[in-house]
Design a protein that fits this description.
It is a single chain. This protein has 23 helices and eleven strands. The protein is an alpha+beta fold and 530 residues long.
Length: 530
């Protein structure tokens, strides 16, 4: 550029004063001089994006050599990246100074890098908040600042939660932790569960607990909607709180008229002193047979589906005029004779067996719920993981084992064109038959431009294939391969929930299981009634 601004340089009295210049230069024309910094980290995605879209906002520092060429002193990372990705104008701002001696050059370069500090998270929140207040959308904030969208969303959430923001500013929370606490700031019980997860070394991570809280809230909303729907049909349905208070009520199916006759089901709504409790249960439908597939394929599992059931109970036995079937036709004397002849040990054994079945049922319901929550967290993590450009340590061994053994999870994914991989990469899954998806798979396979990139793409396919094969059935019957893959993911940074640790043969900690089992007991009236 020909635009030049000259400013005097401060010098000791009596010495000549030289002028600085501010120019706009083509970064490709700048000679990269000696620099103490060797790790440019110029491949940082957001930094490259910012340079390409917004240009270099802070001038680099150069000097002229004897041939009149511009040689870089400071701003190596900005200059190199601008030359690679370009800028909106094709130029970058540059401050031209006299040639320093080596001692000054090295000292300045070290000071510039050693004492440079990135923006604090509180400053990011403040900046994002200011942009939002003047009407800039979250998407535009991310584009203008080259801050990734999750961080922008987190900053916006924290900016609206005063208590959580104070904790962030005091250094008590990271920005990502603060975003989670901000989401549940209105709920003291939820905040307590999150705090316990954050401060204890065992149990579920804060991300897993947060997802549980979201899913539990969605369940309560769905439950309330089902109650209202049934009430609109004229049924005497109890709310969740009323159902808890009615726990232990006699099941209407077990009741009889004074004459010993059961009450026809169609007459139940007309009885006094009765009510309906909505309960949750899981059904395991039979897998649908697909033409051309082996009906005896043991690798296919049908995911359980949550269903609502109606349990009629007697809340006021006097108003109902009914008696329990065990008391029909009996007098007090009869009951006394039975007590003498009856072996109490039989009842104890039967009750113990029934209680064991109830406990196992509660465990299944609880773990199915928390598995669904964990699945959301795990897949969000995997979406980030499969987007890596290089594979982590140990990837080659996992790939080798999957390929050489022809593991069924990988072969199945290959036959179906890697549907889970498409989903994790955010690409629409091709539909149809006769080779649908081949071209899309080819593009994924060939986009890697280095051996490391190709290894990462293959690893992503192996991990995605495993993810596509697991479900709520997995925690009950984990395989060696399930344990192998999860162990690798843990080594690469994933924090599993307690229910996922069952794949490793680890039992959940008592502390982390408390909340989930309590939720399961609330909705397990069907089992108790049985």
């Amino acid at each position: 550029m020909t635009d030049t601004i000259q400013t005097p340089i401060d010098t000791p009295a009596g010495e000549a004063t030289e002028a600085e210049e501010f120019l706009h230069l083509d970064p490709a024309d700048i000679i990269i001089g000696s620099n103490v910094r060797t790790d440019l980290r110029a491949d940082h995605k957001e930094f490259r994006k910012s340079i390409k879209e917004r240009g270099v906002l802070e001038a680099v520092t150069v000097y002229r050599n004897e041939d009149g060429q511009y040689v870089l002193l400071r701003g190596q990372r900005r200059t190199v990246t601008a030359a690679e990705v370009g800028t909106p104008t094709g130029l970058i701002p540059a401050r031209v100074v006299p040639l320093p001696d080596d001692a000054d050059r090295i000292g300045d370069q070290m000071v510039e890098n050693i004492h440079r500090a990135g923006m604090r998270e509180t400053e990011i929140v403040a900046g994002v908040e200011q942009l939002a207040l003047i009407g800039v959308s979250a998407a535009q904030i991310a584009k203008r600042t080259s801050i990734d969208r999750p961080t922008v969303n987190a900053a916006l959430a924290v900016s609206k939660a005063d208590q959580t923001r104070n904790r962030l500013e005091s250094g008590d929370l990271t920005l990502q932790e603060a975003a989670i606490f901000a989401e549940f700031e209105h709920d003291p019980d939820a905040a307590e569960r999150l705090e316990r997860a954050r401060t204890t070394r065992w149990g579920d991570s804060i991300e897993h607990v947060a997802q549980k809280l979201r899913d539990e809230a969605a369940e309560r909303e769905a439950y309330a909607a089902e109650v209202e729907r049934l009430r609109a049909e004229g049924l005497p349905v109890l709310s969740a709180q009323e159902a808890d208070e009615a726990d232990g009520s006699l099941v209407l199916e077990d009741m009889r008229t004074p004459e010993g006759e059961p009450v026809p089901i169609e007459e139940w709504p007309n009885l006094s002193g009765v009510a309906v409790i909505v309960t949750e249960d899981w059904e395991y439908p039979e897998p649908e047979a697909t033409e051309g597939e082996d009906d005896g394929d043991d690798d296919e599992y049908a995911e359980p589906v949550k269903v609502y059931r109606l349990l009629w109970v007697v809340t006021d036995i006097e108003a109902s005029g009914l008696v329990h079937r065990s008391r029909v036709g009996r007098t007090d004397d009869d009951q006394g004779d039975d007590a003498e002849a009856h072996d109490p040990g039989t009842d104890s054994a039967d009750e113990a067996e029934a209680e064991a079945r109830r406990q196992e049922r509660r465990r299944v319901i609880a773990n199915n719920k928390v598995w669904a929550s964990a699945e959301t967290v795990r897949r969000e993590w995997l979406s980030t993981f499969v987007a890596r450009k290089t594979a982590p340590k140990g990837a080659e061994a996992l790939i080798c084992e999957a390929v050489v053994t022809g593991h069924h999870t990988l072969s199945k994914a290959m036959d179906h064109r890697h549907p889970r991989l498409f989903g994790l990469l955010g690409i629409d899954v091709p539909s149809g038959y006769y080779g649908a998806g081949y071209e899309e798979c080819h593009r994924i396979a060939t986009r890697a431009t280095s051996p490391k990139g190709a290894i990462m793409t293959t690893l992503a396919a192996v991990v995605a294939a495993w993810e596509d094969s697991i479900g709520k059935h997995t925690w009950r019957n984990p395989s060696q391969w399930d344990a192998r893959v999860l162990a690798a993911l843990m080594e690469w940074g994933y924090q599993p929930s307690d229910v996922e640790r069952l794949l490793m043969g680890e039992e959940p900690s008592d502390d982390s299981a408390t909340d989930d089992e309590a939720e399961a007991v609330e909705t397990d009236a069907t089992t108790d009634a049985a």
